[in-house]
Amino acid sequence: MNYRHIYHAGSFTDVMKHAVVAMILSRLGFKQTPYGVLDTHAGIGRYDLASPQAARTGEHLGGISRIMAAADGLPEELAPYLDAIRDLNGAGGPLRWYPGSPRLARMLMRPSDRLLLAELHPEDVETLRQEFARDRNTSVQHMDGYHALKAHLPLRERRGMVLIDPPFETPDEFERMVAALALGHGRWPTGIFALWYPIKERPAVWRFQDSLERTGIRKILVAELTVHEEDTHKRLNGCGMIVVNPPWQLDSALRTVLPALHGALGAEAGGARVEWLVPE
């Protein structure tokens, strides 16, 4: 795909990914004991939708802008995600700032919870460090996200989430994700792993999911949202999340949330899919 995320901030793919992340973190917060989050491809933390880069594509207009306009009619499960966006932009303020995964996570986490961020791009990691300079429980490291799995797992909190959300700049990214999950799960089999992926060419997704099944890992949930017919691979037709060890009833909640998001996005094609790739 080869992109800097600022061009796509707030797009429908961000909406889907961050809605799922927020639902997972909200459930982790149900228990009083602290938890940890490792974000392997963190980006810069927050994005200015008024920037020239975001204005160039305008993808947020078909994504988070539509969602916020329809927010009052969306399921209650989305409230933490939507409230975080409102808080970031100020009460009653215009929609200018969009939280990347690190900022969204930190807004939903408690002071006692720990956030670990890995980012390889040298300029982005400096921006990320500035974003969290005053946050003692957030660590920013300049390193390859896949190497971070070996460096930091298992998390000392013994519960939490690993988000693997690469930019898909290399043709073997699906294969690298499978290997990363196998490594991470081997080191921390009870952790929640969330893997984002694009849907452009369906056979590539099938091969990816077949490879996941062959790892022998149990409790693998698939959630997908598409907004176009899958009749060409020359555009981004949708995206998906693989969730390993999902929190209780996340699957049933997503079966309500994702169709609601699809409707709020005004998509005339595609749809939502939630099913178990590998059950318990």
Structure commentary:
The protein has 280 residues and is an alpha/beta fold. It has a single domain, classed as Vaccinia Virus protein VP39 (Rossmann fold, 3-Layer(aba) Sandwich), CATH 3.40.50. Helices cover 39% and strands 20% of the residues. It contains ten helices and ten strands. Helix 1 (12-28) runs parallel beside helix 5 and helix 1 (12-28) runs antiparallel to helix 10. It is globular. The protein starts with 11 loop residues before the first helix and ends with a strand.
Notable features of this structure?
single chain, 280 residues, alpha/beta, Rossmann fold, two-stranded antiparallel ribbon, 10 strands, 20% strand, globular
Strand and helix map with partners:
Elements: H1 12-28, E1 36-39, E2 46-48, H2 52-57, H3 64-69, H4 79-89, E3 97-99, H5 101-108, E4 114-119, H6 122-131, E5 138-142, H7 145-152, E6 160-164, H8 173-187, E7 192-199, H9 202-214, E8 220-226, E9 238-244, H10 250-264, E10 271-278
Parallel strand pairs: 1-4, 1-6, 4-5, 6-7
Antiparallel strand pairs: 2-3, 7-9, 8-9, 8-10
Instruction: Encode the helix/strand succession as letters.
Output: HEEHHHEHEHEHEHEHEEHE
CATH topology category name: Rossmann fold
Q: Total helix count?
A: 10
* Gross morphology: globular
Strand order of the largest sheet: 5-4-1-6-7-9-8-10
Mean residue pLDDT: 95
Just give the CATH class: Alpha Beta
Q: Strand content of the residues, in percent?
A: 15-25%
Distance between the termini: 33 Å
Could you describe the largest sheet, including whether it forms a barrel? 8 strands, mixed
CATH superfamily: Vaccinia Virus protein VP39
| Integer-rounded radius of gyration | 17 Å
Protein structure class: alpha/beta
Number of domains: 1
- In total, the number of strands is 10
Low-confidence stretches are none
Helicity, in percent? 25-40%
CATH architectural designation:
3-Layer(aba) Sandwich
